[in-house]
Design goal:
- It contains 6 helices and 24 strands.
- By secondary structure, the protein is α+β, with helices and mostly antiparallel strands.
- Helix 2 packs across helix 3 and helix 3 packs across helix 6.
- About 2% of the residues have low confidence.
Length: 458
């Protein structure tokens, strides 16, 4: 005796679905629902009349008293409301191309937008159909010059299920494109977006889910070779941003293509989301971040093989006049921190003659090996916090000299910004229990929440 049978659905004479079902007991009723997305070319069925036929057990595997009653036919007008998603440049927001400055209010919901808004590659997705679209963002593909960006780096706002006539904004900070894909030298670059690549959303038009164009990336500022004088801020405690290159290093122009600005914006957002502070007090001139470019005398080999990696860096910056003891000099060095068999490093913090320096490193590789030191925002925050005095030996979870890192870390949470232990984590916590270096309020123990280098709301 057969234990299962087949149900077949035909539309306009073509089989579009098939199910295998167990034989039911006498008197039982079985209901079968058909999802449109399970059908072949379902969009062609919408808003038109079709012949539907349902056939039960077409192979006659089940012995029945009446083998002639196993089909049902009807002619129906199929009418459904479907979404229609289409990516485009966000002209409706007065963006003339997908490079956005000061758009942090749109990207992160901050109002008014802070001056360190950063640069983003951005586009909109409009739903011009008649129904909401759910879960389309799960299969977005974003490439620049043929290199694909991790989907985790795409920030999406204004909801993930656009209603009919509404739109969502998808944006990628420029620095995440630079560290995961490739250099964005000012000039023309090929940019491609595809949304709902897995066709998880049934749409009126499945052929308009991609956007491909050549984008002109402009320089975002003029390059400066010195710390510009900003009289109203003279004497204040400030973090001054620097783009540092070895004498023989390739210039990817992080200081003038939006990379460092967008890293700084991510640093500020990271702090705002985890504390009541507005962020670090960045050095600026006329309301714009002051970023200095320094080309060192030392070569890449000399830097990577130095006993103290930061020594030639500090020497070069001080020779360039970056020597104010009231400032912390935060330098991005887009090359390997160490070479050969030495353990690679992503960051370093050192002092020289009373001046504090924080550095991050970055190493680019060819496929399939991934680039190293991708989290440039939290790496730099980690090093700047060292310059601010974290973590003091008085902290209950203080970690002294370890096998991998020098003293000045915590050992209680692998996901803490200042963790220095051997467990693998991601820097997503800012002194979670507020007991080691931020917001503990203990006397005679460094509390960075009170640092003059931080900007508070008032």
């Amino acid at each position: 005796m057969a234990e299962e049978y087949t149900i077949v659905l035909l539309i306009d004479g073509e089989q579009v679905a098939e199910w295998y079902k167990p034989v039911t007991a006498p008197g039982k009723i079985k209901t079968q629902r058909v999802r449109l997305k399970e059908l072949t070319n379902p969009a062609s069925l919408i808003n038109s009349r079709h012949d539907l036929e349902l056939i039960i057990d077409p192979q006659n595997t089940v012995k029945e008293s009446n083998e002639g009653s196993n089909s049902f036919s009807t002619r129906q007008f199929l009418s459904f409301q479907l979404p229609d998603l289409e990516p485009h440049l966000p002209e409706d927001l007065s963006w003339d191309q997908p490079v956005v400055f000061g758009g942090t209010d749109l990207i992160y919901g901050i109002s008014p937008p802070p001056p360190d808004g950063g640069y983003y590659m951005a586009y909109s997705v409009t739903n011009s159909g008649g129904a909401a679209a759910a879960s389309w963002g799960g299969s977005t593909r974003f490439t620049v010059n043929g290199l694909s960006l991790s989907q985790a780096y795409i920030n999406q706002t204004r909801g993930t299920e656009p209603q009919p006539g509404a739109f969502v904004i998808a944006a990628v900070p420029i620095w995440k494109i630079v560290v995961t894909e490739g250099p964005l030298i000012p000039g023309k670059h090929q940019v491609d977006w595809t949304i709902d690549g897995a066709n998880s959303v049934l749409e009126v038009d499945e052929g308009n889910n991609s956007l491909s164009l050549e984008v002109e990336f402009p320089t975002t500022r003029d390059r400066t070779l010195f710390d510009q004088v900003d009289q109203p801020k003279e004497g204040e405690n400030l973090v001054h941003l620097v783009y540092v290159l070895p004498s023989d290093g390739l210039d990817e122009k992080w200081d003038i293509n939006g990379t460092i600005e967008s890293i700084a914006a991510s640093m500020q957002s990271w702090l705002r989301e985890r504390s009541p502070v507005e962020g670090l007090r960045f050095d600026s001139i006329d309301g714009v971040l002051d970023i200095t470019f320094v080309r060192l005398k030392a070569s890449l080999t000399q830097i990577s093989q130095a006993v103290v990696t930061s020594a030639p860096l500090m020497e070069g910056l001080m020779e360039a006049g970056l020597d104010d003891p009231k400032k912390i000099y935060a330098g991005w060095v887009p090359f390997a921190g160490r070479a050969g068999d030495l353990n690679p490093i992503c960051g370093s913090q050192s002092d020289r003659d009373g001046v504090k320096f924080s550095f991050t490193f970055f190493e680019r590789h060819d496929d399939p090996e991934p680039n190293h030191c991708l989290s440039q925002d939290t790496i730099m925050l980690h090093e700047v916090f060292h310059a601010l005095g974290a973590v003091s030996p008085c902290a209950p979870n203080y970690l002294g000299q370890s096998s991998n890192l020098p003293k000045g870390h915590v050992n209680d949470d692998p996901n803490d910004l200042m963790y220095g232990g051997d467990e693998l984590g991601v820097m997503i916590e800012l002194d979670k229990d507020r007991d080691d270096y931020f917001g503990h309020g203990l006397a005679n123990c460094t509390d960075l929440a009170d640092s003059p280098f931080l900007q508070h709301a008032d």
